[in-house]
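Weekly puzzle thread! Below is a chain. First person to post its structure in token form gets bragging rights.
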Amino acid sequence: MFIKLSTFKKMCSHAYKETGLSVGLTEKEVYIIASNWWTVAVPKENMYPKHLAAVVELTGQIPEKGEAYTYRKECSPQAVALCTLDMDMMDLWQKYESTYRFSRVYFKNAGKTDTCIMQNTSDPRDKFLISMFIYDLIDADTLDDGETYPDMKSQSNSSNIVVRTNRMDFSCMKRPCRYYGEKEFMQSIIDVDLLWEFNAIKE
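Winning reply:
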């Protein structure tokens, strides 16, 4: 799994306290863990025990096969239809044609670095914002033996990105520009290649 445990805990805790943390186990025994803007899908045999324990610490339980619930602090668990959580990330992955990487350009708001710019690896003009939670979440150092490197795919006209390996899938929403300054800055760098470390000057 490429999910960093410390960041995963923060994201689950935030969802649990705010909009709700949804957890389900499909008939194919795939764990679905989701908030209102991100989704993790991991086959049961590939789930790290510490990550599952972090979920149970908040929810107090794990749904049985074919069940799903939304958990929220100081509220009773609410049963939800698994189909509302089990988005077909493989279908999205096959539709998306472009791969993206994190750039080294970050935004700081209210004294906190909270946003990173991602860029299309083949089209420098195609850029979007992503939460720093996602930048911190994806950690290749936590991969299993034999697990492929996490690839990130999306399209310029899509609101989601999908990250996957041969062991798990992750999807989240892109972060829209919230301030005029952000929008103006993104427009001003449209022709700038932010993945410059892959395009060194040749003497």
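Puzzle host: Confirmed. Bonus trivia for everyone else. The chain has a mean pLDDT of 92.
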